[in-house]
Amino acid sequence: MLKWSSTEYDVVKSYLDNQKIKVVEKYDFDKKEVKYSKNIKQNRTIKQFSGYEEVVRAFIFAELGYKAQNIEIEKEYDIGRPKVIKIKSRIDIIVKDDNSNTFLYIELKKDKDEIIKKQFFSLASQEKGQSKRVKYLVLYTFEIINDKIKDNCIFIDYENSTLLTIGKM
Q: Residue 121: which H helix or E strand, with range?
């Protein structure tokens, strides 16, 4: 198991077991295994809970209830100038609307981090540069308090530059 108590895992399990749309097909916290729907576009196949970020991803899939075919994970972008050193950077989750426009652009993090925020905006700019509309940016995590999940996120209306903070991030 990761470093949460069994009660905390039970809270997350209840969400995963009651998904409206089955996006997390299988999970086992003891074996650190996870399997997402084959309908999700997986740019990097994830088979294990390697840390909190993956638990948060599984939870948010269960909570959001979006169709698997509208979800893309671990999309890579080249950062840097052409013909110079390029750095690969990834966005954790992209949720698209039924017209393939990017609706939610989600970065999962344990804590608030200014460098991550700057990287996040840079990646969204690249997505937009590929002639793709980006509606909302979301920096997301959660914590478990008194056996309940408390969302902590920064929600940005990217098209209108409006910021809404939910929780204490």
A: helix 114-129
C-alpha–C-alpha distance, residues 23 and 37, integer Å: 5
What are the Cα distances from residue 41, in Å, to 13, 14, 100, 152, 165?
Answer: 24, 25, 12, 26, 28
Domains of the chain: 6-166 (3.90.1570)
In this predicted model, what pLDDT tens digit does every residue of 138-149 receive, in sequence order? 888 888 888 888
In this structure, how many other beta carbons lie within 10 angstroms of the beta carbon of residue 34? 22
Among 135, 139, 136, 134, which residue's Cα sits nearest to residue 154? 139
3-state secondary structure of 135: strand
The one-letter amino acid code at 124 reads A
pLDDT tens track for 112-151 = 555 566 677 777 877 777 767 788 888 888 888 888 888 8
Residue range 40-67: average pLDDT?
Answer: 87
